[in-house]
Write a structure and sequence with these properties.
Elements lengths: L13 H24 L5 H10 L1 H34 L4 H34 L1 H58 L5 H27 L7 E3 L1 H11 L1 H6 L3 E6 L4 E5 L1 H18 L5 E9 L2 E7 L28 H11 L3 E6 L5 E8 L1 E2 L3
Parallel strand pairs: 2-4
Antiparallel strand pairs: 1-3, 3-8, 4-5, 5-7, 6-7
């Protein structure tokens, strides 16, 4: 969670300040009522109630600075004084210690108020420091989320590997049997049609199992210098038939060709293939998908911008989770595998809203000048 900051009363609206004061006075009232309604025999309870006064004092100082801390402490002392006089007046040594506590109340309020005002002043004078702290907190939260996701991915990977292994062997037997049956039926018969349907479904299942294995047991990348622009061009060519069937135009813009990436070209081809296929499938008929290769400040970026409905805000954080998909026939593994590949290349992958609607997927990889 974000750290709580002392509120700046100059920017707080009157309603917020008023409700805070009401809350402080209500807290003081509750503690005082507990004191006055608890029998003197339960001295240990009174000791607890006495310490409870410090909660509204500290909050008053935190919200309203020195003035707020002092005023809240004075209110607490005024509320507590009659109780000391009435309940402990006969016990002079103990009553004296309680009177000392009344002096400590404003001291604590003023001290916390000074610290709160000092923090506000530093925030105003050095806003970049506050921004750095916020950025560090965000990075910490992101790291924690990545660790939780890594745990989930590890467990899901083991399950996927086991299922894929158990399914692949029966599939091979079924495929062989259907091929034998298919070789004995005549073309144009219902049997031939059903055999063709079964063959297509088996191919789809085999592809699904292959995706499971690619996710659960990814091979180590084989790094070498290669042009990411060439890889993107190959993917555009491979998916041209798919784009034609969907009546979608793929427009490729190469912004740089002189730099190369230290990468595994086959794995990076798989990443770009997944992103472009998603863009084509998400785009309405007659629209275009823009693919770009851009170099800047030691990085090369591949962007895929579609004209589809985009990604819902509630689904944005889950897009790279394995088995999460918004497609009817999707496996939810394409982006998860892509993220893993990009991570091994020390890069970044993400989704964002595209200007004018749609979604923009991007991959950032570090570049180097071609060797030799």
């Amino acid at each position: 969670m974000d750290p709580i900051r002392p509120a700046d009363t100059s920017s707080d609206d009157l309603g917020t300040s008023l409700w805070r004061w009401v809350g402080l006075l209500s807290a003081l009232t509750v503690v005082s009522v507990l004191h006055y309604t608890t029998d003197a025999e339960h001295a240990w309870l009174h000791n607890i109630y006495q310490r409870l006064y410090y909660a509204p004092i500290v909050m008053g100082a935190y919200w309203f600075g020195v003035r707020g801390g002092f005023l809240t402490a004075v209110a607490a002392a005024v509320a507590y004084y009659p109780h000391i006089l009435h309940t402990w007046g006969h016990n002079v040594p103990y009553a004296a210690s309680q009177y000392v506590e009344l002096v400590i109340f404003p001291c604590a309020g003023v001290l916390v108020g000074i610290l709160a005002d000092w923090q506000r002043t530093l925030t105003r004078q050095y806003p970049e420091t506050a921004s750095s702290l916020e950025a560090a907190n965000r990075e910490l939260r992101d790291s924690q989320e990545q660790l939780r996701r890594a745990d989930r991915l590890s467990a899901l990977g083991e399950i996927a590997a086991g299922l894929a292994h158990e399914i692949r062997n029966p599939l091979a037997g079924i495929k062989g049997a259907i091929e034998i049956v298919g070789a004995r039926v005549r073309t144009g018969t219902p049997e031939a049609e059903f055999t063709g349907v079964a063959t297509k479904e088996l191919q789809r299942l085999d592809g699904l199992v292959s995706e499971f294995l690619a996710y659960a047991r990814p091979r180590d990348p084989e790094f070498r210098d290669a042009s990411l622009s060439d890889v993107v061009g190959q993917v555009v060519t491979l998916l041209s038939p798919e784009a034609e069937r969907a009546a979608v135009t793929v427009r490729l813009t190469r912004g740089c060709d002189v730099t190369v990436v230290r990468m595994d070209p086959e794995q990076m081809q798989q990443v770009v293939f997944n992103l472009l296929l998603n863009g084509i499938q998400a785009s309405p008929r007659g629209s275009a998908v823009d693919v770009g290769v851009i170099c800047d400040a030691g990085w090369v970026a591949v962007t895929v911008t579609d004209r589809g409905p985009g990604v819902a805000a509630e689904d944005r954080e889950r897009q790279f989770d394995p088995f999460f998909t918004t497609k009817t026939n999707g496996t939810g593994l394409g982006l998860a595998v892509s993220q893993r590949i990009v991570s091994t290349h020390r890069g970044r992958i993400g989704l964002e809203d595209a200007p004018g609607g749609g979604c923009r997927a991007f991959v950032l990889l570090p570049v180097r000048q071609a060797s030799g």
